[in-house]
Amino acid sequence: MASKTLAVILGAGPGTGQALAVAFAKHHSVALLARNASALDSVAAAVRGAGGDAAPFSCDATNAESVDAAFAAIRAQWPNHQLKAACFNAANPFVSKPFLELEAKDLKPGLDLNVYGAFHFCQKAIPEMLKSGGGFLCFSGATASTKGTFLLETVAATRLTATPGSANFAAFAPAKFALRGLSQSLAREFGPQGIHVVHAIIDGEFQLRSMRGTPRGTQQASHAGIISTARIEGMMGKAEEGTVRRSSLPDEAVAAARTDFRKPVFDVLSQRLEPSAIADTILHLSQQDRSCWTQEIDMRPFSEKW
Description:
With about 300 residues, the protein is of the alpha/beta class. Helices cover about 35% and strands about 20% of the residues. It folds into two domains: about 5-150 and about 165-205 and about 275-300, Rossmann fold (3-Layer(aba) Sandwich), CATH 3.40.50; about 210-270, no CATH class.
């Protein structure tokens, strides 16, 4: 790759993380960060298969020493590259309980990741960007960062319905509010120094290839933290009882269904967030002219009712 620039994706697992890696690899070498680096081998292979340059690194965002070690390893891997993009895409710990049943320890995982984890990540990424004359810093957020709410979705037959989940999320929302606040503070401080900071609200059920054949019942979308009860038997051909059978539907049929209203599966497929579409949107933000920077964006399916 002729490029001498670098992007770092923390939370680079399958789904949105992998899609971000593939998208940013069109312009940068990509460092893939997760607690278990070996779990990122398939993501690195996908990037390389698309003609990009990527390597996995072990990193626990909640541990400052782990973050320091990861960035040192990244610098050793690409000693002459300039860091130009960094995405904090870590999966959010989720706790749902009535407030009076919560204990202080229930808030700790979310705060450790979204406050301290993001803090550690930015303290390593921002100095590198300043050295290179600026860059792009993106945080993956959720509706809970603005409303303190959550969403429960039910997929039934060919229709998705949403019910507001406005209660029992006092352990989830504070961490997301904090992440958004950090993003806004950094945007004010480092925007004039050439660092474009974006808080990206991403909410909805994800269209993941890994969901094919998933047992019916509770499915947690790792990024947005949305729980869905899927009942899609027979929608894409005869499905076995107790499973969401998508393996019989080719990827090209999925893509066509998302853009062709005549397709019978359009109604459900298009109501799921497509990771590659999210990644393309974020990549576009990273290329904006500094005279017109987006500092917050809200991404969700066209059909949302919440």
